[in-house]
Amino acid sequence: MQMQLIMSAPYKPRKQLRTLKEGRIPSLQLCLFWFIGACFCLEVLGHQGTQPHSIKIEGDITLGGLFPIHARGPAGVPCGEIKKEKGIHRMEAMLYALDQINSDLELLPNITLGARILDTCSRDTYALEQSLTFVQALIQKDTSDIRCSNGEPPLIRKPERVVGVIGASASSVSIMVANVLRLFASKLLISCGF
């Protein structure tokens, strides 16, 4: 499983640190999950052909995620500060659920769930722009008149098909994203406010 993360600021899991200070020892699996998540969150990658503010986990079936990882930015800037409780926690809940499902060999035998998680930056218009990456795989591209220098047709790597999208906790974001996704027969699963 390959995981790729692009975020503008590092994340430190505070609840895990608080738990260890109190003397309670969490399970080894949970510690490993937090450690791997923290390592990937601390790694800040450049914009090398991937979308900013995104996480990509390879899998046989890909689920999309839209979460308000960042608050609204000031005028002219789409994203502001990181939202720990409502953004990071919801994203981690999805990653934890995927990890639990993928580690259970009886639940989905020989199938791995992947994810493409995007940041809405708490803006409906930015979320709409981000959600277009989910439908890229469904759009047919006509390459019949394009030829490479050696005369062969080009090999175009198609983005992974997202079967459903989890998140979009704000109503305005959910409405805009749902209207785009329904054009391509994709499902939007609204996350609960916790």
TrEMBL record:
It comes from Erpetoichthys calabaricus (Rope fish). InterPro entries: ANF_lig-bd_rcpt (IPR001828), GPCR_3 (IPR000337), mGluR (IPR050726), Peripla_BP_I (IPR028082). Gene3D superfamilies: 3.40.50.2300. This is Receptor ligand binding region domain-containing protein. Its main location: membrane. One of its GO terms (cellular component) is membrane. Keywords: Glycoprotein, Membrane, Receptor, Transmembrane, Transmembrane helix. Residues 89-184 form the Receptor ligand binding region domain.
